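Input record, target 12 of the design panel.
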């Protein structure tokens, strides 16, 4: 009798001290608030969020339509993205963060589909001061009637010093949507990413037919590009100028940042720095995080950096090389020489117009 009481007391004391130590350990961890700590903290939350997440395939647009689903940097690199904080986390650690709540976006990635918007979004969520929902919320086009409260509820919780970023590449396609965005917040920051129009066409083609089984017949690329009269894919896919002009018509220039996918792929650090400056954020990306991979001819993540485990969790990179865009052009259709010439000739004047509009030239392989 006496013996078993002693044992019980001993057990209770042991359990209580175990949890006590655990709590102290966790709060110390969070109190550190170093940049790396914050990165890691985000990825832990992202993991938790992913567990809670129920995949929702409903409402994904038909593949053959002009899908805004854009899940690649190049080729068909799919990203398993983290960085998505889910509401209703009862993690006690959140109490130590001042004023954590869901906030409306202060920045939007509004276009273009098949230009690497997912990779860009994912990269940006590696910044400790940026949070972003994984899914395209499509509030300003498809879910507008659900209202602002609904929109806010789609956002991950954030602290006061974090910026909420939402990505829906189809926003840029409609002047009505741009007007709605302006009415929502006339000072919102808009990020647009563009890409070699021919590569974009190839990428859309590959995406549209990615589920066609090996050996089965796919439509000829040339026929697919020309479409029928109601659906001319060339004009749709090379028409950056028209859509960007609509953005310039609605918003002041200093709220609009136009990036090139090719720059992002070849020098992610300088693009990240540009975005940090544009959003008014402290620099969090440094050159130590990247290295130049001579074989690939572009920058990859440095595996030696303390930040790399987080990168591995949040961005689909090759764990051996730290590189994105591993399968560059893997599924892209070949273009016969004559048709390539025809495309280049047709598109080149559009590019010139575009460069004049955005005030910078972009080197595009197909047009060199
Ligand atoms: C927004 O609307 C689209 C189309 O109606 C739907 O498929 C999508 O799931 C909605 N987004 C969210 C986050 O519910």
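The sequence produced for target 12 reads:
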């Amino acid at each position: 009798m006496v013996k078993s009481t002693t044992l019980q007391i001993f057990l209770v004391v042991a359990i209580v001290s175990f949890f006590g130590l655990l709590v102290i350990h966790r709060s110390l961890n969070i109190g550190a608030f170093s940049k790396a700590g914050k990165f890691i903290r985000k990825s832990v939350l992202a993991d938790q969020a992913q567990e809670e997440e129920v995949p929702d395939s409903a409402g994904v647009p038909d593949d053959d339509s002009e899908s805004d689903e854009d899940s690649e940097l190049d080729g068909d690199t799919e990203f398993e993205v983290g960085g998505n904080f889910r509401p209703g986390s009862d993690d006690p650690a959140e109490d130590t963060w001042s004023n954590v709540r869901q906030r409306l976006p202060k920045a939007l990635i509004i276009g273009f589909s098949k230009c690497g918007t997912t990779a860009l979004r994912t990269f940006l969520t590696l910044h400790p001061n940026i949070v972003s929902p994984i899914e395209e919320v499509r509030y300003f086009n498809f879910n507008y009637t659900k209202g602002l409260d609904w929109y806010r509820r789609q956002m991950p919780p954030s602290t006061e010093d974090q910026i909420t970023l939402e990505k829906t590449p189809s926003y840029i396609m409609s002047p009505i949507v741009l007007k709605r965005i302006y009415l929502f917040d006339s000072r919102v920051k808009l990020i647009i990413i563009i890409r070699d129009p021919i590569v974009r066409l190839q990428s859309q083609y590959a995406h549209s037919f990615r589920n066609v089984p090996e050996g089965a017949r796919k439509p000829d690329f040339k026929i697919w590009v020309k479409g029928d009269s109601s659906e001319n894919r060339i004009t749709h896919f090379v028409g950056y100028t028209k859509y960007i002009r609509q953005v310039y018509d609605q918003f002041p220039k200093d709220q609009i940042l136009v990036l090139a996918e090719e720059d992002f792929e070849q020098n992610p650090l300088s693009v990240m720095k540009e975005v940090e400056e544009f959003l008014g954020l402290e620099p969090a990306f440094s050159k130590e995080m990247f290295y130049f991979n001579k074989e690939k001819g572009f920058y990859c993540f440095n595996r030696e950096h303390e930040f790399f485990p987080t990168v591995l969790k949040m961005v689909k990179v090759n764990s051996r090389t730290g590189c994105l865009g591993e399968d560059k052009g893997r599924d892209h259709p070949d273009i016969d020489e004559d048709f390539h010439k025809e495309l280049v000739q047709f598109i080149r004047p559009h590019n010139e117009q575009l460069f004049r509009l955005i005030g910078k030239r972009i080197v595009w392989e197909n047009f060199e």
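Residues 101 and 142 are 25 Å apart (CA to CA).
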